[in-house]
Write a structure and sequence with these properties.
- By secondary structure, the chain is mostly loops.
- It contains no helices and two strands.
- It starts with a strand and ends with a strand.
Length: 54
């Protein structure tokens, strides 16, 4: 399932969860990995705005 993500948004993947990123235009990504991450402590949960085709 692909989801559209807008500017200023973030995504958290669980350990072992597959993922792929792509853009038709420019994209800058910052990746943080760690065993002790708690995204709820610093990243509010939001619903994805729009589903796009695979």
């Amino acid at each position: 399932m692909n989801k559209r993500l807008g500017k200023g948004k973030a995504v958290f993947w669980q350990q072992g969860e597959g993922h792929e990123t792509f853009s038709k235009h420019k994209m800058t990504a910052i990746v943080i990995e760690g065993k002790e991450l708690d995204p709820a402590a610093w990243m509010p949960q939001a619903e994805m705005e729009e589903e796009i085709g695979c």
